[in-house]
Amino acid sequence: MAAPGCPTWLELAERLPARTFAFLTKECGYQTPAPAPFQIETKKATWQDLRTSYEAELTRKILDGEMVESTKTNYLQSLKEFDAFVLERGYASLDGITEDVIVEEFKPWRKKRILKSKNAKARANRFAFDQTILRAAFNHMNSRAWKRAGFSPMENPVPGVKRDQKPGANPEDKTMPFTSEELAKLEACASLNYVEDSTGRKYALKYGTDSLALSLLRRSGLRRCDAATLQWKHIRFDMGEGMIQVNAKKNGEANSYQSTKTWDRCSGKRKRGGIHARLTPF
Questions:
Q1: pTM of this prediction?
Q2: Shortest CA distance to 56 belongs to which of 127, 140, 128, 133?
Q3: What pairs with residue 256 in β-bridges?
Q4: For 124-183, how does the pLDDT look when each residue is reduced to its tens digit (9 = 90+)?
Q5: Residue 53 backbone dihedrals phi, psi, to 5 degrees
Q6: Which of 80, 129, 82, 78 is nearest to 102 (CA)?
Q7: How far apart are CA 19 and CA 236, in angstroms?
Q8: Cα(147)–Cα(142) distance, integer angstroms
């Protein structure tokens, strides 16, 4: 009979009926070894792995209506700069990208490239934006999609941006409201029910004037990309007397504002679809 530690027992376990094998192990004092603990095999991640996965997440947000294409394009501009840095410095694996690398190497590297650009003055605060986007990309390592791909979560090496350093916190160009004369010209132009091209040919606005669009942009402060995709289903009229909430995201929050007579007059002529007008010749 095989000794308790002999590998023959493993063969017997496969060939003999379970009851017969149990009887033999009891008589011979053989104990079945405990199975090895289950371990999930994880892959060693690279920056390119993270970038590809994060870009796919941005695409998903666009398809779900949580983001617009222009926002993704802006994000990718920041990621391309980090692509160049990683390639130049040879940081293939994410293990080698630490907080020291971000603060002591990438930060001065990126700022030098900004200063060399033609519009360096206008892009003085660009690094704060790049840092914000890069931190969001590394936060993606805690997502389900990242884990499903076989990668393990890691600590985010990108430090958070201080509140007074966030993009837009200290704008160099102060807000310059329209003058009464400029507003009058805008309202007069928006009240027309046609547009005229350079040859003098006129085109009718299928859904009427642009007064509603002008009122929306003035009263809500929506970005152009949010207003361009806005539909009536995204606007709520049930938030109290005269209150309207636009569910398009602005700074991560829904935007609420007070209704006006101009808005009420225009909203009485609601049309299906978006706010852009389709042009048809007279």
A1: 0.50
A2: 140
A3: 245
A4: 678 888 999 999 999 999 998 998 888 988 899 999 877 545 555 455 555 567 788 888
A5: -65, -40
A6: 82
A7: 70
A8: 7
Quick one: tokens of 280?
């048809």
Provide the pLDDT confidence category of residue 280 given band limits of 50, 70 and 90: very low
How many residues in the chain? 282
How wide is the angle at C-alpha 263 spanned by C-alphas 260 and 264, nearest 5°? 85
Asked whether the predicted pLDDT for residue 26 surpasses 60, the reply is: yes
Among positive and negative, which fits the CA dihedral 268, 273, 276, 280?
negative
Q: How far apart are CA 13 and CA 36, in angstroms?
A: 17
